[in-house]
Design a protein that fits this description.
Layout lengths: L2 E5 L3 H13 L3 E5 L2 H10 L4 E4 L8 H10 L8 E5 L4 H9 L4 E4 L4 H13 L1
Parallel strand pairs: 1-2, 1-3, 3-4, 4-5
Helix pairs in contact: 2-3
Length: 121
């Protein structure tokens, strides 16, 4: 089974994403902000990261840049999942190294399909 780290400061969003992905048979871990995410990834690298952008202490763009710059984590797929849904936000997320970008609100099937696709590699 694959492990997915959900990095989301909104409890409601985190619980919704957790429920969706657990129903798909994935193991879920959590981080509440970017700093906590980087610490968690160093301790136990996940198979994939679902990453919010707007968070306290460190935003998702910076987390993604750091993951993709580190040889130990550069191949971990990152799905940015954010309320920042403008085309520029999507463009900037992909420029930071994200493997996919999903704007909130999203269709549950879109998130699950994207995660499963990236986990299959």
């Amino acid at each position: 089974m694959s492990t997915v780290l959900i990095v989301e400061d909104s409890i409601a969003q985190r619980e919704m994403i957790t429920d969706l992905l657990e129903q798909s048979g994935l193991i879920i871990t959590h981080a509440h902000d970017g700093v906590e995410a980087l610490e968690a990834i160093q301790t136990a690298p996940p198979d994939l990261v679902v990453l919010d952008i707007v968070m306290p202490r460190m935003n998702g763009y910076e987390v993604c840049r750091r993951l993709k710059a580190n040889p130990k984590t550069q191949n971990v797929p990152v799905v940015m999942c954010s309320s920042k849904g403008e085309e520029f936000d999507r463009y900037w997320g992909m420029r930071q190294g994200a493997d996919a970008y999903i704007a909130k609100p999203f269709q549950p099937t879109e998130l699950v399909a994207t995660v499963k696709h990236l986990l299959r590699g």
